Amino acid sequence: MSRMVRKLNSVLGLKIPAGSFLPSLLAGYNKQHGSRHQIRAQAFPKAKPYGWHNYPFDYYNIWVKNAGPAPFLQEPTLEILTRQYNVIVFKHCFPVCNIQPDTTADIYSDYRSLANYKLQYLALREKLHQFSSTKFVVWTGAAQVQPRTTEDQAKRAREFFGWVVDEWDLPDDNIFVWDFYRLQTEGQLYFQQKFSSSPENAHPSPAFAHSAAKLFFQRLVDVIELNGTATSLIGTAKAA
């Protein structure tokens, strides 16, 4: 997916679930609309040598603190990725919601607190804005099921992703949000049991993953073609 052919609108999805469903949706869309969009999923960061961690600290650590033309611990920086892809999608796995009480805020710390998350996200936003010709799609974090978290942690998670949607996400820039957390929780504190694999498993059920992937696909295509103006943050069509 070379950047030389920019009209292909190549998309890099970092750790996107739903297997081959998204590529098949995109292939069907291309056939119907005569477009040539492509998508590739990539585990980021990999289990080795960096370690399979994708918290706000880790995106900050690789893309901001250690930015540059060379990989960091074999992980591509934004300087590398933006040469290859027109659109970059990134997300967090559900442990991101196990947010601890605040201590002294420290952008360089991997301690998972609201204060640190916000500092790291603000630095990420500033960095993403440096690549104005690339669009970024950010998922609000995957929610936890109730048995795998505490009420205080769940409240902090809701506060953080509410902040991402209401304050961190700015209008008319190159960053777009897909509100996966809202889909999973339906406005409640926890990943709704009816959507999860089991009461104690925060992975989505096949049915929910399928329906969520369709909504994400709608949001993604809208971001590519219309700068996100035709869909809501959960991917539903806006009223005409």
How does this structure look, described?
- The protein is an alpha/beta fold and 240 residues long.
- It has a single domain, classed as Rossmann fold (3-Layer(aba) Sandwich).
- It is built from seven helices and seven strands, in the order βαβααβαβαβαββα.
- The protein has helices at residues 21-33, 56-65, 78-81, 114-128, 151-168, 180-185, 206-226, and strands at 10-14, 38-42, 87-90, 135-139, 175-178, 196-198, 201-204.
- The strands form two sheets. A five-stranded parallel beta sheet has the order 2-1-3-4-5, covered by helices on one side. Strands 6-7 form a two-stranded antiparallel sheet.
- Helix 5 links the parallel strand 4 (135-139) and strand 5.
- It is globular and about 50 Å long.
- Mean pLDDT is 91; it is low at 1-8.
Ordered list of secondary-structure elements with their pairings:
Elements: E1 10-14, H1 21-33, E2 38-42, H2 56-65, H3 78-81, E3 87-90, H4 114-128, E4 135-139, H5 151-168, E5 175-178, H6 180-185, E6 196-198, E7 201-204, H7 206-226
Parallel strand pairs: 1-2, 1-3, 3-4, 4-5
Antiparallel strand pairs: 6-7
Helix pairs in contact: 1-7, 2-4, 4-5
Task: Give structural attributes.
240 residues; disordered N terminus; alpha/beta; globular; Rossmann fold; two-stranded antiparallel ribbon
